[in-house]
Recover the amino acids of this structure.
C-alpha cells in the first residue's frame, strides 16, 4: 500500500510558501453578491481528503480495511455579464483510491447564472440556476466514481454586509 500524503511532512517549504501567499490576500466576492459588469474572479483550489476510519450506521468508529484518499484540483470562475447577471462556472480534475476502486478523471463541470433580484448598500438577494454534467471522478463525495449523469440546481440567496462600508465581513444564507 502506498503511504498517504507525506509531501508536506518531508518538506515544509510548500506549506510556508502557501501561507505566505495567503497572507497577501485579495478581494473575493461571496455568493449572493454579483460581480460588476466586465469584472471576473477565478479561484483555484487543491484539496486532499484522507480517511483510515469510518462510522457504522450506529455511529461507532471503525478502522477501514484500506485507506481512502481523494485529491482534486478545481477552478471556480465568475464573470459579471452586467450589473444584475453573473455567469458562474466550475470544473475539477480528481484522482483517488479506496478499498474498491482507483480512479482518475474529470469531476463534474458546472455552469450557471445568478440574477441580482435586490441590492442596497448592506443587503442583497439573488437567484441562481445552474446545470452540472457528471464526469469520471466522484460527482458526489459519497458516490462511486462515474456515478451520476447530470443535474439542475436552483438557489435563493440572501446576504448582509457587516461593519462600516461592508468591510467587517458578511452573513449569507442559501
Amino acid at each position: 500500500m502506498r503511504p498517504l500524503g507525506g509531501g508536506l511532512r518531508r518538506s515544509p517549504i510548500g506549506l510556508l510558501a502557501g501561507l505566505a501567499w495567503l497572507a497577501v490576500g485579495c478581494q473575493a466576492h461571496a455568493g449572493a453578491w454579483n460581480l460588476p459588469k466586465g469584472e471576473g474572479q477565478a479561484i483555484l483550489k487543491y484539496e486532499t481528503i484522507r480517511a483510515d476510519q469510518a462510522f457504522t450506521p450506529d455511529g461507532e468508529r471503525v478502522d477501514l480495511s484500506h485507506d481512502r484518499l481523494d485529491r482534486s484540483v478545481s477552478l471556480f470562475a465568475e464573470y459579471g455579464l452586467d450589473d444584475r447577471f453573473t455567469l458562474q462556472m466550475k470544473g475539477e480534475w480528481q484522482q483517488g483510491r479506496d478499498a474498491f476502486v482507483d480512479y482518475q478523471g474529470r469531476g463534474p463541470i458546472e455552469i450557471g447564472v445568478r440574477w441580482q433580484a435586490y441590492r442596497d448598500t448592506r443587503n442583497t438577494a439573488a437567484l441562481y440556476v445552474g446545470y452540472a454534467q457528471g464526469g469520471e471522478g466522484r460527482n458526489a463525495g459519497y458516490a462511486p466514481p462515474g456515478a451520476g449523469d447530470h443535474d439542475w440546481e436552483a438557489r435563493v440567496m440572501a446576504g448582509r454586509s457587516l461593519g462600516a462600508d461592508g468591510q467587517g465581513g458578511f452573513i449569507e444564507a442559501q
User: Anything to note?
Assistant: Residues 7-173 form one domain. The chain has one domain: 7-173. Confidence is low (pLDDT under 50) at residues 1-8.
